[in-house]
Amino acid sequence: MPEQLLFAMEVxxxxxxxxxxxxxVALGFVLIFKASxxxxxAQGVMALFAALTLVGIxxxxxxFGHLINAIFGTEIHHFGWxxxxxxxxxxxxxxxxxxxxxxxxxxxxxxxxxxPIILFxxxxxxxxxxxxxxxxxxxxxxxxxxxxxxxxxxxxxxxxTFNALGYGFFIDNxxxxxxxxxxxxxxxxxxxxxxxxxxxxxxxxxxxHQAALxxxxxxxxxxxxxxxxxxxxxxVAGIMWGSKSGVQFSxxxxxxxxxxxxxxxxxTSIPGAIxxxxxxxxxxxxxxxxxxxxxxxxxxxxxxxxxxxxxxxFRPQGLFGDKIIERV
Amino acid sequence: xxxxxxxxxxxxxxxxxxxxxxxxxxxxxEMKNITLRFGGVVAIKDISxxxxxxxxxxxxxxxxxxxxxMLNVISGFYHPQExxxxxxxxxxxxxxxxxxxxxxxxxxxxxIALFEGMTVLDNVMTGRLxxxxxxxxxxxxxxxxxxxxxxxxxxxxxxxxxxxxxxSIRKTPVSRLPYGLKKRVELAxxxxxxxxILLLDEPMxxxxxxxxxxxxxxxxxxxxxxxxxxxxxxxxxxxxxDLSDRVVVMDYGKKIGDGTPDEVRSNQDVIDAYLGVAHD
Lengths: 328, 280
Description:
Chain A is mostly helical and 328 residues long. Helices cover 69% and strands 0% of the residues of chain A. Chain B has 2 domains: 1-104 and 195-280, 3-Layer(aba) Sandwich (Rossmann fold); 115-188, no CATH class.
């Protein structure tokens, strides 16, 4: 097989894996959007915050350490213990639920029946607040996150492909884990939304507040639940991204990559978020591989947005989005 | 109820028997001296009336009389500044609308509040939410008890869909339905909750004559078949008089009449409110 084709195949595979990670972030957006009609700009920052908290807890870091030291002149940084990954994840999840409660209590509850654009603006505010809050709480240095997920070259794939094709594909174990996790997450979310009482109530609230109240659904409960689930998805995304590239504040920028993903897949479709993520992942890797060298590279920075732009022109609702029907 | 709409009243807490032989039970909801203000505007002024088990109770009045406000008070969307509500024998504290719904008071809205993105069946199924007791994990895994529960709830929903003759649109998204059918789906969703009191906010508003006749028939059938207590608001006098057992008449937030359709029809205040009085 020609070498170029083999390279292209490897690039495609890696693109798929990268796409899964985009899809993980996009999922959080879709979920909140479907459930509450809010486009949650803070989803990426929530992933960052979750990852920061997770690392902080695992390493026994003192929250607000810098602040405490600055005020009291103390020199405390660590509690001096280490928390195992699984327990730290559970604690982090509890913090994300508390965050969900706080977001509803202090922000969203007061914006019932407001225009979507106002809710959107509120989430922008939330994003900046959370970024600053995370910085204050855990510090801004780049941290290493290792919850025990396998990392590095998958030697089985490397060997198998080498024996079959004479060229070993490089696939990161972490990417494979991420794919499995994303698949499980999607199945869980779909089952939750479609087949459970709470899921049905969630869809009802997204559709019509008054009607939801009239069938006995507590809006506050559902909102806290939705933000908690979004927090959970953010935590999963945060773990994956953090394990891959370290927990750093540029993590919140990956949220922006979720935008073109959503435009491709449709803002209201969970499968759409996955497929959109994969298309963006594969597309930008292949484009960089094939066209990049001709135009000086760095196409990964803009390819996704251009693709999204093209989609907006020809299919504004995305691949899987609800068809836009208007009765006249 | 009879064709001429007459009922025979009997004294006492134990209800009365209508002229067509339906037994009306005791008081299920009593409104006592309800006053509702929005800032300086008095929407409801010191109104008392009761709703008895099994009856069709209408609240009528000209536009702006405070009918919808009254319905919103009963369903917990508004909270009156004065007065109290006795529901099933005990005083009802101020409640959120969803708590009222869980207590067995279902309602429809004047401007239709349906889940537009869902199918008719899903909409009706939301009415069963409060009957689902199994936990999240059981439901997600479609486990024994959860499955039985879902099937039972589904049966109730399907029975109501059959009853209201909307089988053919079961799987249609509500947003595609015409107005009259949407009204019927909303009724189905409210009925699915098997309410103790069913509140209908202008069920006939914006309908043509044929649709009105259909809706009237369904309201009577629901009351007859399930024994549901119904309180409805309507400003089409003709329809109300044919439909209801007892009528409260409101005007400018005050109660100006209360009784059987015949009694109300001959009430001078009511006639004045509807036809206007000569000011000389």
